[in-house]
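User: Design a sequence. Structure:
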């Protein structure tokens, strides 16, 4: 990736998705001086198998965990949209909301879920992926949301969109020096990972596998779309 410090916007459905999808790449950009914003579309209030915890407590816990994880990566700010977990749809409203953040923050890179990933069960991952992709078009073209232009919130065209968990990845980022930061961030999501045995080993093996062809010890891969 380019070494000139710029801005990136990373949009995930749930607290922890950004770290799993792009944590190493985010830490690498942050180390290069980039200004990075996380947007978390839902409050993650269904992400537990613990019968004793209420959705209200869970969503509050997960915001704390997400702030700590973002700080561990060097992310400047986290925006919580607080939609209910599992109920997102790629509505024109969600698309417009993402477009507004893109116009506001003017990122050169936008990261999100690949909504075309086959057999991906979680509906929020698809909804966010589609709404971000469609939001980029609304952010970029001036005849979308013309009222915003009239109050000075003009169009913005990111350089590229990077989709994690990609169906057909075509871009591999070397994150060898940033893997430990990714794991430190992931470990902040205690409510999610405390009951999952072996997750760290599985993620390590996956990152090693993704880097093997290029000779990187650890990598993240994406579908890269030039906007
Ligand atoms: Zn998720």
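Assistant: Done.
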């Amino acid at each position: 990736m380019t070494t000139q410090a710029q801005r990136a916007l990373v949009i995930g459905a749930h607290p922890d998705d950004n770290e799993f999808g792009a944590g190493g790449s985010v830490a690498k950009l942050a180390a290069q001086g980039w200004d990075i914003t996380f947007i978390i579309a839902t409050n993650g209030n269904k992400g537990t198998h613990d019968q004793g915890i209420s959705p209200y407590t869970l969503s509050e816990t997960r915001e704390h965990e997400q702030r700590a994880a973002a700080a561990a990566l060097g992310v400047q700010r986290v925006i919580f949209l607080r939609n209910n977990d599992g109920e997102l749809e790629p509505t024109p409203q969600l698309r417009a909301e993402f477009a507004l953040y893109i116009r506001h923050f003017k990122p050169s890179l936008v990261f999100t879920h690949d909504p075309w990933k086959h057999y991906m069960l979680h509906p929020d991952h698809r909804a966010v992926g589609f709404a971000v992709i469609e939001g980029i078009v609304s952010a970029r073209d001036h005849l979308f949301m013309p009222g915003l232009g009239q109050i000075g919130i003009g169009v913005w065209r990111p350089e590229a969109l990077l989709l994690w968990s990609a169906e057909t990845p075509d871009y591999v980022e070397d994150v060898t020096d940033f893997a430990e930061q990714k794991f430190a961030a992931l470990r902040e999501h205690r409510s999610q990972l405390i009951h999952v045995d072996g997750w760290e080993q599985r993620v390590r093996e996956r990152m090693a596998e993704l880097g093997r062809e290029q000779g990187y010890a650890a990598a993240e891969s994406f579908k890269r779309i030039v906007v």
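The beta strands are 7-12, 35-42, 77-83, 109-113, 160-164, 171-174, 219-226. The helical segments are 17-31, 55-73, 92-105, 123-140, 146-150, 179-187, 190-193, 199-211.
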